[in-house]
Amino acid sequence: MRVLSVASEAVPLIKTGGLADVVGALPGALAPLGVDQRVMIPAYSGILESLGNVQEVWADWNLYGSHVRLFKGRVGTTTVLALDAPQMFHRDGGPYAGAQGDYWDNPERFAALSWAAAEVARDGMGDGWKPDILHAHDWQAGLAPAYLHYYGSGGVKSVMTIHNIAFQGVTDGGRLESLRLPWHAWHPDHAEYHGNISTLKIGLALSDAITTVSPTYAEELMRPEFGMGLQGLIATRAGALHGILNGVDDTVWSPEKDAYITTYTSRTLDKKAENRAALIEEFGLGDVPGPLAVVVSRLTWQKGIDLLSEALPGFIADGGGLVLLGSGESSLEQAALSAAQNWPDRIGVRIGYDEALSHRMMAGGDAVLVPSRFEPCGLTQMYGLKYGTVPVVAATGGLNDTVIGATPASLGANAATGVTFHPIDGIALANALRRLTSLYRDRAVWPHLVKRAMRADVSWDGPAKAYAALYGSLAE
Ligand code: ADP
Hints:
By secondary structure, the protein is an alpha/beta fold. The protein has helices spanning 18-30, 86-89, 106-123, 143-151, 199-206, 215-220, 224-227, 231-236, 269-282, 308-317, 330-342, 355-364, 380-386, 397-402, 408-412, 426-441, 446-455, 461-475; strands at residues 2-6, 36-42, 52-63, 66-75, 78-84, 97-98, 101-102, 133-137, 157-162, 170-172, 192-193, 196-198, 209-212, 241-243, 292-299, 321-328, 347-351, 367-370, 390-394, 419-421. The chain is globular and about 65 Å long. 52% of the residues are buried.
């Protein structure tokens, strides 16, 4: 089974969020199951230089007016296909935006990626490799299933994965031709979306199967509160929709092997305490008699970071502490910084993106907070489970599917792995933190909760089997 996975980012080459973790981890998780998956991404500045054994496998002399080449290379054990089009992908800012905001030609940049993907899927590439399945991730790859549908699939089936429905690739309807869509794509059942074009919508409409990153999010997406306008379309495709959780790449995230921390296992939790002490020292905090909570997150409305301001006073008064790492909306950054000013002994904040620090926090925290208003899957609560850093999560999306909330019943059944709360508001979060503090103080309960969290299966084994089964059923 051969699968071409198409996305705008993939670890370890380029990452802005969980999408990159998933796209980067899938090939390694699928290989033992006999799935040969290649990953196709744009060749942003520096990407080609990071690949080994680089070889040209396809070219187009006139893709959006320029000579575009596809290079095959290796990173670790994964075969990467990097689409080299410097005028489109070498930019000063990030993959999607620079100092002036989103790049004006994002629709065409990612249409080019999708076009190249559909062509090499349909016709095969220079080294004779041709996939059975094209797997498109998010709006950036949404046109790829559409191009297969309109211009011939060559027998290739397509899968469209929604990592976050908030990003829909919406652009002006006048771009139909420039995105190489036929006139009949201008229809509410295909690309047309309230007078605009949505590249995610057309991918969802025309792919052979749809997946999203948790069973709960799959259900939620059919409801107006979560579907963000696409709930109707998704509901009509319910029979083709699959919720498959993400896993954690344990070559990157494992307390036993993590190069950034003092390593530990569930039998050497005294070493976890060393990480805690180091984290407290790094942030210049004083004594934290209650649980030390950590947050590693984009600072956006989705992530519910604003709910902390209502919940923190009580948590701090009860002895808790907080270390937060993230960046995003400036009002949320400011609120976090002023909380750290108010409680310098208990709250530490770092604005920015820091991979190594995120590992030290996961190892040193007692709990990881994920109060998201919606969360397709979420990765940090799963890192928390692996690191015995008890997740405190809103009961939504993948958070709901990965954490078993502590209740008298779940504790009695030795099943609880964290704390969950609902509704998703400041009062419920404050109550959840109170529950966390009392669990932490109960020495007959806490160590068992930590160890149970560490035993939770957040590996790629189950999810990889589910993807392999889906690919297999489509290819038949
Ligand atoms: P999303 O993709 O919506 O941002 P996820 O929980 O799925 O949320 O994935 C976020 C990923 O990005 C995780 O791997 C998390 O550790 C990482 N991350 C988020 N913010 C930061 C940051 N400021 N520094 C380091 N890593 C971060």
